[in-house]
Design goal:
about 350 residues; mainly alpha; 12 helices; disordered N terminus
Length: about 350
C-alpha cells in the first residue's frame, strides 16, 4: 500500500510560529515580568521541546498555494526595524525594567533577530521585487552586517562548499576560527563582486556598500539618540548577538561539505549533497523553512513555503534541530565529537554524481 503523502504546513503555521514570540516580546517591553520570561523560554526552550515531542515532518507544496508568503516576510522585515530601537530603549533607556528584565530582553530579542529576523531577511534578499530586497538589506544594515545582502547572493551561492567560499566551514575548524574568517571574507568578497558588476558601467547606480556603511552609521546614531552611550552599547550587543547566530547557521549548515572538481577543473554543480538539513517541524516553521537548506541552494528563488526536505540518501541530515545544533557548535569539542560520525557516514554513502 502506497503511503499517503505528507501535507505541507499552511502559511498560518509559519505566521504563528514566527510572530508569537514577537508578540510576547512586545508585551514584555511594555509590562516586563512574565511576558519577558515567556518570550525568552519560547525561543530558548519551547521550540526544541515541540520539535522533539511532536515528530511531524511536513511535506512540500508549490509556493503559489501560499499567497501570503511575501506579506509575512514584509511584516517580519518591518518588525525587525521596529524591534531594534524599541529593545535598545528597553535595555538601556528609562524603561523601568529591572536589571534581570533588561537581560531577558537582550537575549530574547537577540534570539528572535537571529532565528526569525535573519531567515525573513534572507528570503527578502532573494525576492525579485526591489522593495522586498531593500527591506531585507535594511535589516542586515541595521545589525551592522549589510555586506551579507551582497556576499550571500553573489559569492556564497556560487562558491558554496568550496575553499573559495568564506562562509563554508572546513572539517575540524572551530566556530571561533570560522566566524572572523567568514565575517572578513564575506565583506571583502562581497565588495569585490559588487565592484566587478559595476566595471565598465555594467550596473549603474550607487555602490551598495555605501548604503550599507551609511545605514549602519545611521543606526548607531539612532542608538545614541535613544539612550546615549548605553544605547550604543545595547544596539552593538544586539547586532553582534544576531550576527553570531547568522554565522552559526552558516557554520552548521555547510560544515565539512565540499563540492568535487570536474575533469575540466570546474566545481561540480551545487546540489542537495552540499548542505546539512533538519527535519524538525516547529523550528523549521519558526525559521521559515531555513533548515531545508539544500533545496534553497538548488532553487535560490523558490519562496520558503515551497522548499522540500530531500531524502537522506540525497542530502545530509542532522539529527538535532538547527537551533540546538548551533548551540552545540559553541563548544568545539562537543561539536566535533557529535558531528564526526554523521559526516563520515555521509562521505561514505553520498551519491557520486559529478557530471556537468
Amino acid at each position: 500500500m502506497q503511503a499517503e503523502p505528507r501535507r505541507p504546513l499552511p502559511i498560518a503555521a509559519f505566521a504563528v510560529a514566527s510572530l508569537l514570540p514577537l508578540a510576547l516580546l512586545g508585551l514584555g517591553l511594555a509590562f516586563g515580568g512574565l511576558w519577558l520570561w515567556a518570550a525568552f523560554l519560547y525561543m530558548a526552550l519551547l521550540t526544541i521541546l515541540l520539535d522533539q515531542l511532536i515528530p511531524l515532518v511536513p511535506g512540500q507544496s508549490e509556493a503559489a498555494e501560499f499567497p501570503g508568503a511575501d506579506l509575512l516576510l514584509a511584516t517580519l522585515g518591518i518588525a525587525t526595524l521596529i524591534l531594534l530601537p524599541a529593545a535598545t530603549w528597553a535595555i538601556a533607556g528609562p524603561s523601568g525594567l529591572t536589571t534581570g528584565e533588561r537581560i531577558l530582553t537582550f537575549f530574547a530579542t537577540g534570539f528572535w533577530l537571529g532565528q526569525v529576523g535573519h531567515p525573513a531577511a534572507h528570503e527578502l534578499i532573494h525576492r525579485s521585487r526591489r522593495s522586498l530586497f531593500r527591506l531585507g538589506a535594511a535589516y542586515y544594515t541595521a545589525i551592522l552586517f549589510g555586506q551579507h545582502a551582497s556576499a550571500h547572493r553573489l559569492v556564497h551561492h556560487r562558491q558554496v562548499a568550496s575553499a573559495d567560499d568564506p562562509n563554508t566551514a572546513r572539517s575540524g575548524e572551530s566556530f571561533y576560527r570560522f566566524a572572523p574568517r567568514a565575517w572578513i571574507g564575506s565583506f571583502r568578497t562581497g565588495l569585490r563582486a559588487e565592484s566587478d558588476l559595476r566595471k565598465g558601467g555594467g550596473r549603474p547606480g550607487t555602490h551598495p556598500y555605501l548604503f550599507y556603511l551609511a545605514g549602519s552609521l545611521a543606526a548607531l546614531l539612532l542608538a545614541a539618540l535613544i539612550a546615549g552611550w548605553s544605547g550604543l552599547l545595547a544596539w552593538l550587543g544586539l547586532a553582534l548577538h544576531a550576527q553570531s547566530q547568522i554565522l552559526l547557521s552558516d557554520y552548521v549548515q555547510h560544515y565539512g561539505l565540499l563540492r568535487a572538481r570536474l575533469a575540466d577543473g570546474r566545481l561540480e554543480p551545487v546540489g542537495p549533497a552540499h548542505s546539512w538539513n533538519t527535519a524538525h517541524w516547529f523550528s523549521s516553521a519558526m525559521m521559515l523553512n531555513a533548515p531545508r537548506h539544500s533545496d534553497h541552494h538548488v532553487h535560490p528563488a523558490r519562496p520558503f513555503p515551497g522548499l522540500s526536505l530531500p531524502e537522506t540518501d540525497l542530502a545530509p541530515r542532522l539529527p538535532w534541530p538547527l537551533p540546538l545544533a548551533c548551540a552545540m557548535a559553541l563548544s568545539p569539542r562537543l561539536w566535533r565529537r557529535a558531528i564526526a560520525p554523521h559526516l563520515i557516514r555521509w562521505r561514505e554513502t553520498r551519491p557520486q554524481d559529478t557530471s556537468a
